[in-house]
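U., I forgot to send this yesterday:
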Amino acid sequence: MSLSKLSVGLVGWRGMVGSVLMQRMSAERDFDAIETTFFSTSSAGKPAPKIEGCKVFDPILKDGNDITALKAMDVIITCQGGDYTKAVYAPLRAAGWNGHWIDASKILRMDDDAIIILDPVNMPVIQTALAKGVKNWIGGNCTVSCMLMGVGALYKAGLVEWMQTSTYQAASGGGAPNMRELLTQYGSLYAEVKDLLDDPASAILEIDRKVTAKQRAFSPAETANFRGVPLGGNLIPWIDADRGDGTSLEEWKGGAETNKIMGWGKQFGTTEVPIDSTCVRVGSMRCHSQSLTFKLKKDVPLADIEDMIKNDNEWVKYVPNERVATEQNLTAANVAGTMTIPVGRVRKLAMGPQYLGAFTIGDQLLWGAAEPLRRMLRIIQAA
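Result:
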């Protein structure tokens, strides 16, 4: 199939993930070879956006709920969110549409007729699915995708007996309003103690007391996006729904999605790798990080593990397990807005030579959300 003949409908291009996707598609000149039509659920009939490098097939925004208009597309890429997928996907398929659906939301992610896309990690799974006629391509959980971009080499080599992870997930995982709320809280906390901070003689315990009191006094409106809990100067050791078994939905995704990405589990007729997680929201803006503990199936020299990670893909960056290198490379401030996936703190653990520790971080909006979508479009081109 030639991408030059594909009509591509874009939905949700204005939101946070959609905006990053537009930036990446423009930078990589993805628009050059497609006929682009922009859809909107709220502004149909208005002029389509002007995006560098994009010559729109239709200069007017189409209605994102118009099944007939959507049916005219060969490919639909949506970053509009789960409610949109719930409302439109099934009626569109029922109307006979047989195009490729590329979706950033989680709604279809675990369906048997859907593949979680992360091609630097699971290209063989994607190619097999394409050959079988699969048409649903779903972006993965942001933390899982960033983790596999960093240490996927260990999984590809079949070395992982099990993995446990503790995550440190940014406000962006909740959405743009969550990021705004975090910054607003930081500003309020600063304002509360500015006079004391300006006085070198002020007592730090008094500053701390006032900050804590302010955190506890935030109104429901000031903490609405994190269920009444302040994230500024704080952390929240629970993300997503309570599954009723002591785990959150986010923690379940760690195992379920990692295995599905790799092509393991009941859907593929193979055995899953056990993965357990403890997911924590922290006051970072847009980078998810995680501390990893592996039990490997055999003792592998650290030098070999380093080579495997370094050579797995062009975006992973192996960081020596040294203080300065870690401080300079393995932080959210260093990684935000980049395609780089640093992996560091790699070391054998006291539990035994088969136990390995590591730490990785990635931009939640790039490899964690937008990038796999645009790359899937390119893969469809080459199919």
